[in-house]
Every structure is written in structure tokens, then in C-alpha cells.
Amino acid sequence: MERLNKPLKVKKIVVLGSTGSIGRQTLEVIEMLGPQYKIIALTAGTNDSLLAKQVIKFRPKLAVLSNEEAAGRLSEALNGIGCQVMSGDQGQEIAATLGEADLVVMAQVGFSGFKPLVAALKKGKDVALANKESLVIGGEILNKMGLLDRTRIYPIDSEHSAIWQCLRSGRKEEVDKIYLTASGGPFYGKTRKELSHVTAEEALKHPNWNMGGKITIDSATMMNKGLEIIEAMWLFDLCLDQIEVVVHRQSIVHSMVKYKDGSVIAQLGRPDMHLPIQYALTYPERLESKFENFDPFDLVLDFKKPDRENFPCLDLACRAIKEGGTMPAVMNGANEEAVRSFLTGLIGFNNIAEMIEAIMNKHKPMSDPILQDVVAADRWARREAKVYITAIERRMN
Amino acid sequence: MERLNKPLKVKKIVVLGSTGSIGRQTLEVIEMLGPQYKIIALTAGTNDSLLAKQVIKFRPKLAVLSNEEAAGRLSEALNGIGCQVMSGDQGQEIAATLGEADLVVMAQVGFSGFKPLVAALKKGKDVALANKESLVIGGEILNKMGLLDRTRIYPIDSEHSAIWQCLRSGRKEEVDKIYLTASGGPFYGKTRKELSHVTAEEALKHPNWNMGGKITIDSATMMNKGLEIIEAMWLFDLCLDQIEVVVHRQSIVHSMVKYKDGSVIAQLGRPDMHLPIQYALTYPERLESKFENFDPFDLVLDFKKPDRENFPCLDLACRAIKEGGTMPAVMNGANEEAVRSFLTGLIGFNNIAEMIEAIMNKHKPMSDPILQDVVAADRWARREAKVYITAIERRMN
Questions:
Q1: Interchain contact, B263 vs A256, CB within 8 Å
Q2: Do B144 and B179 lie in a common domain?
Q3: Contact flag A260-B289 (C-beta cutoff 8 Å)
Q4: What is the mean pLDDT of chain B?
Q5: What's the rounded Cα separation, in Å, for the pair B169 and B356?
Q6: Dihedral of the CA atoms B22, B23, B29, B30 (nearest 10)?
Q7: Are residues B162 and B276 in the same domain?
Q8: Is there a contact between B42 and B54 (Cβ–Cβ < 8 Å)?
Q9: Taking 50 as the threshold, does the pLDDT of residue A2 lie above it?
Q10: How far apart are CA A241 and CA A257, in angstroms?
Q11: Are B320 and B330 in contact (CB under 8 A)?
Q12: Do B221 and B114 fall within a single domain?
């Protein structure tokens, strides 16, 4: 328990998905932490103008955009500042496996995080994981490949960061269950009928958290909590029935661990992603933060059972992990397409769950899949999603 | 993190104060835990009939009563069952330092816990401490004597057990502050004027906890929380301004630790002393318990600033530890006498704080006291208390 007196080594960080919500906040934390943390690579999908600004500020040696045209523009914008620019999946994987990286932050959205995660884990990298979809899709495979080394995957999701922190208070085999808290999102308390009228704009107004579009819609449907159940199973080696979802509207208690002796350890804090991001970056240490100013006074916290009837996505996710194999990838792919379609106004809010369920019903999950099977299942689900949406559009016209 | 496969050694336990509330619950926990925990000595003050029953059930080799006559009766009652009976301070100290004891549970009430604690720590014993008064009185001296080895003192107080559990989630130097939760007791929300009418009977009805008489009255005056602040300072090596009291009427969150990164770790559970007792007995392991059945659903938890005006004992305790030396012993001695006088109807509720303050005002604390000075300060405070009470009685007649 003594303060470390040795001079601190500079920690070299790669940030995948740096232009998204978690990526931008990761850069804010790294800036606050000071020169002990050095960014050596940044990657994004298509946003070349923001990535260019980030590169100019943080001076990594490598910058990657998935989109080739955008990468071309980035290359021009960065002309002469000594940063290599790459593009496509290959570029992302190179960034994810840079030899000198001490920690790879995975902050991409959705399926795009999957292959870089596999690559980074194969290379033996320490990974700070914000991309829950990659574990939903590939947890089973990564586990079978022996790549789910839980000492090297640091969760960034606030709930999983909370569990990770609470797990320090006991041994793994002493855990009885965990309580994943859920805000319930902007529509909690509404009936199915009321939900049929809600708009994407309303769904994007999350009561507590300021997050990216995909996760905000997932939070409104409660699919986010479903994905998090699966993520928690793989991250912490738990069974489905060791995980309970608790609706906690205030988003102050970020999750809890119940030990076998009846003691419950909870992690609390303001709903601010800077905290779990910082914890993953500085782990096993806790450093001073300028972002948080938690104060318990005048807090009122409540906890309820989730409404599984009006928010069926929670059970769809549980069904997917129970069926296993390629089913979680299908569920996830269908969800990503459904969310995209809802955001662009193609389908209504209740159609999201309906569409995922319809696609899952059509899928016969393959057990013991390999990497390619999971990728194929994801593609299949997305094709089915397009068929489904076309049918809806036809119905509406 | 691996399950221990070695055969488990029997843990030999001494319970001081076994007929009190914590003592009785300690025996219940030990009974539940099974043959891996063996009681080798039991001690109490005067209750020979209960102690005799406990001895017959748990078969320790030594039983001690402070009161000599009661010890005589115990000796008769236990005739022929092979348990040595002793009496007085000397007997208590022998029990506290038994060579073969693996853990000494200190569950006495008030000052009587002090000398056995010093003796046990001097002998290098592991101590499970429920007696907070001994640290209030002697924390400074024990610290100077190098006897406050924090790896060997296991707190039983629910708040301190909570802090102890939450401290596993970070390093000592990473702690920003701790929040000690307080139920507020049966009278919280009342004004000074309303408090002038409350009776001992009303005070003994604690809303959440089923505890002994002394601590229940301390809880009603909030002196209990003042004593706990001082206890926490010595147990966890904290400054006074690192400790905040939070009124939490539901007694579900037992206390919290705020780390420098802004993360707050809390321990929750039903208000049941069996849990912290068990944790102290089984530490560093957590074993299955049949006592707890925590469930977060439908909980509503709130947190408020304490009312220091109508409950001045909190500030009296803070003043005592700030002035230091012999002052905490004087404050504690005055409080013990005041509580006793309130319970027997000699003084009113508000007189408790008034009396403690008056006695503290008369005392010029000696700095750098030795053991005898602290014992003398305690005696002086009790004599002053009697003078004070006689004056009140005269006023009332």
C-alpha cells in the first residue's frame, strides 16, 4: 500500500474511434492527465476534419480512417507534420496492434470494433474497451480462443467499470451476483402504445448521459442493457442468472456487486464518462481528476425492477446469449440496422424490437462458430434487416 | 484469485463482552459458521446466568466475569464441566491475551474495553473491534506506542466495516474522503425544544438497528457518530476533515469512500450486525451467510447534511479530537455517565450534551498523555458528572 516512488514510465496509448463521443472524452482525459500519457495512434471512420485537428494537437505517429477518400483528404491536411496516414480495415488493425502501444482504447461504434479487438488481443495488448458490441458478437469465440484474458481487458462502460471496481472488494468465487443499473432512458414508464409515437429526436434526449447516437437509442429501447448483460458475462466470467438489471433513474449508482456473505459493494459518481475512461487509463492507480465533483448530499436514489414487457429488447438479448453461437451476432447486427433505420425515420420505435425478433426467429444459430461464421451471421442479419425495412416501407406506401 | 484448496485451519476465538448485543450476535455467527470456528474464552460483566448458558453451549476453556460475586455463582453453575472461571480486570486481560487465540472479539460496552484492547494489541493479537470507546479514549496513545497496526484491527462497527470493505477498491493514498452514514436515530428532525420532552423509552426505539442501550442512546444524540468519526480517524489513519457525516435514514448504505479520481465506493446491506461481525471473523474471506437477504428493488435511499444545531454531540466529539490528549477520554467518560443518568431518568435528553460540554469546558487537556493519565481523565470526568447531576437534582427539587 506504499506510494510508488519509482519514476513513472510514459504510457503509450492508441485510441480507436477517436472522433466519437467516448474517443473525444478519452482525449480530454489524456490531455488532463498530462505528459505521462502519450498518444501514438488515432483512428476514426470518416470524420477527417476532426481527426486532422486531433492529430495536430496530440501528434500521434499514425492516423487511420476507414473511409479511403476521407483518408486522402486527411493526408493532404496533415502534409508535412510527420504523421503516417492509413485507411481501411487493415489500417485499423495496424493501429490496434502497434508494437510499442501500452494500451489500446477501443471506442468505435458497433461491429466495427470487433476485428481490431481480436487483433489487439491476439497481439497480447492491454485493451480499454468501450465497444461492447465486439464482446456481444465475439465473446464466445474469444473465450474459446483463450483470448479473454481478464487481467488485460479494462472496461470503460460505466456499469462495467463500476463492477470492475467493486470486484476489488472480494474474490471472484465469492461473488453471488451483480446488479447492472439502468437509467431506463427517456421513455421509461411509457406503454407500448405511447412508444409507437415517439420520434428519433425525443429518443436522442437522454435524461442523464451525454452519449453517441447509437448507444442513446439502445438506451431508450433498453437494448443497451441487454448488450451490457452479455458484455458483463464475458468480462467477468458470470452466468446469465448471476446478472440482474435494476432500473435506477438517477444514474448515480453505476452498478453493484453482491457477495455471498450478503455484503453489497456499489460504485457511485456523477454520470460522466470521463471517470470510467480515466480509471481504465490509469489502472491500477487512481489519479486526481478535475472532472468529477460528486457530493452525496440531497441525493435521492431509487431502484426498481425493469419493465420487460414494454421494453422487450432486454429479453431479446438474454435469449440471444442463451441460444449462443451465431445468435448474438445476428441480434446485434439486426439491432444496429434497426437503430440506423429508426434514426433516419424509416421505422418506428416499437419496430426496432419487432424487427430484431423477426430476424432472430428466422436464424438457426450455428454452434461453435469460428470468426468467419460470426462475420457472416452479422452480414446475413443486415441483409435480412433491409428486406424487413423494404417490407415496412411497402406497407406504409 | 484462486479458491484455496488447502484444508482450513480451525480459528480459535475469544469473545469479550459475550452477553451484550454484539457478543450474542457474534456467538450466533460462530454457530452458523460451523466447526471451523472454535470459541476458547468468553467474558462478560455481571450476567452470570447467560454466560453459564453460553459456556455450556460453546465449551470454552475459560470464562470471566468482571463482578466477583457473579463469578462465584458462575463457578458453581459450571461445576464439573471443565471450564476455568476467573473474575475482575485481571481475568479480562488474561482472556484478551490467551496464547492460542487467533482472534479476539472486543464487544464490551464503553471504557471497559480499553485495557483489554491495549493488552491484546501489546500481545500481538488480531482484534475484531466493536468497542469504539476504547479507540476514542486511547487511539492517540496506542498510535504513539506503535500498537495501531491497521493490518490486525478488524472493525465490527457497521460503518467502519463498510469503509474497510470499500478501501479494498483503491490504495490508502488515493482516498480523498470518507462519508460516514448516520441513521439520525429516533428523534431526527426534532427541534431542541421538542427534544426536551423525549423519554428514555422513546430513545431506545431505534428505527433501523436492534442494538444495546448505550449505543442506542448515543445514536439518538448523534454522539455515536461523533465517536465513530474518532474511531475512523484511528482505524484508517485519516484527518478529521477527510470525514463527512451524511444522514441516511434508511441505514442501507453503511458508509462510502470517495477516491481522488471522483469514484465513490459504497457498501450496502440490510441493517443487521451479523454481516459485519461475520466479515471480521472470516476476513480476508467472504463466506456464505444465512442472515442476509438484501434486495435492491423498491429501495429509496436519501442523503442529507446532519443537523449539528439540535444534535450538538457531533460537534463536541469533533472538538474533543481536535483538542486531543486527555480530552477525548473526558468527553467519553462524561458521555457514558450522562447516558446512564438519562436512562435512569435523572436528566433530560438535552442535558446529555449540556453536561458533556460543561465537563469538557472545565478540563484542561493534557497533551502527550500516558495510559494512566487517560484512565485518570476518565475517572475525573465521571466524578464531575456526578457533581453535575447532583446540581441538576437540587435544581429540580
A1: no
A2: no
A3: yes
A4: 94
A5: 38
A6: 160
A7: yes
A8: yes
A9: no
A10: 14
A11: yes
A12: no
Are residue A301 and residue A165 in the same domain, yes or no?
Answer: yes
| Same-domain status, B161 and B307 | yes
B window 136-165, beta carbon within 8 A of A: 165
* A 107-126 residues inside an 8 A Cβ radius of B: none
Reduced to 3 states (helix: H, G, I; strand: E, B; else coil), residue B68 is: helix
Helix/strand/coil for A228 = helix
What global pTM score does this model have?
A: 0.95
Q: Which three cell numbers stand for residue B379?
A: 475517572
| Shared-domain flag, residues B145 and B161 | no
For residue A63, which phi and psi values (nearest 5 degrees)? -130, 135
Run of H or E residues at A233: helix A223-236
- Residue in B189, B223, B136, B203 with CA at minimum distance from that of residue B342: B203
Q: Which residues 163-192 on chain B approach chain A with CB closer than 8 angstroms?
A: 165-166, 168-174, 179
Contact (Cβ atoms closer than 8 angstroms) between residue B334 and residue B385:
yes
Name the residue among B256, B204, B205, B247 with its Cα closest to residue B222. B247
Cα–Cα distance for residue pair B244/B229, rounded to 1 Å: 8
DSSP B170: S
Q: Which residues contact A35 (CB under 8 A, 6 or more apart)?
A: A10
Determine the Cα–Cα distance for residues A190 and B63; give it in Å rounded to an integer.
64
Question: From CA B385, how far away is CA B356, in angstroms rounded?
Answer: 8
User: Residues B93-98: contacts with CB within 8 Å, 24+ apart?
Assistant: B93/B119, B94/B62, B94/B64, B95/B14, B95/B16, B95/B41, B95/B42, B95/B43, B95/B62, B95/B64, B96/B14, B96/B16, B96/B120, B96/B123, B96/B125, B97/B122, B97/B123, B97/B125, B98/B14, B98/B40, B98/B41, B98/B62
CA dihedral for A201, A202, A208, A214, sign (positive or negative):
negative
Contact A341, A382 (CB under 8 A): no
Alpha helices in chain B (DSSP H): 21-33, 48-58, 68-77, 88-96, 114-122, 132-144, 158-166, 192-195, 200-203, 213-221, 223-236, 274-282, 313-323, 327-343, 349-362, 371-396
A166 and A305 housed in the same domain: yes
Give A167-218 pLDDT, tens digit per residue.
999 999 999 999 999 999 999 999 999 999 999 999 998 888 777 889 999 9
Distance (Å, whole) CA A90 – CA A50? 21
Element (H, E) at A83: none
Range of the domain at B35: 11-155
CB-nearest partner of B168 from A169, A173, A268: A169
Q: How many domains does chain A have?
A: 3
Type of residue found at A147: L
Cell 456499469 belongs to residue: A159
Of the candidates B43, B39, B51, B32, the residue with the CA atom closest to the CA atom of residue B13? B39
Asked if residue A270 and residue A205 are part of one domain, the reply reads yes
CA pair distance B255, A73, nearest whole angstrom: 54
- Which amino acid, A96? A
A220 Cβ neighbours under 8 A, 6+ residues apart: A185, A186, A187, A198, A203, A206, A349
pLDDT digits (tens, 9 = 90+) for B73-132: 999 999 989 999 999 999 999 999 999 999 999 999 888 999 999 999 999 999 999 999
Calculate helix-pair angle for B349-362, B223-236, nearest 10 degrees. 50
- Is A261 in Cβ contact with B279 (below 8 Å)? yes
Q: What number of H helices and E strands is found in chain A?
A: 16, 12
Contact A203, A216 (CB under 8 A): yes
The DSSP 8-state label assigned to residue A300 in this structure reads E
| Residues of A in Cβ contact (< 8 Å) with B275 | 261-263
Does the complex come out with an ipTM higher than 0.90? yes
B395's CB contacts (< 8 A; 6+ apart) are none
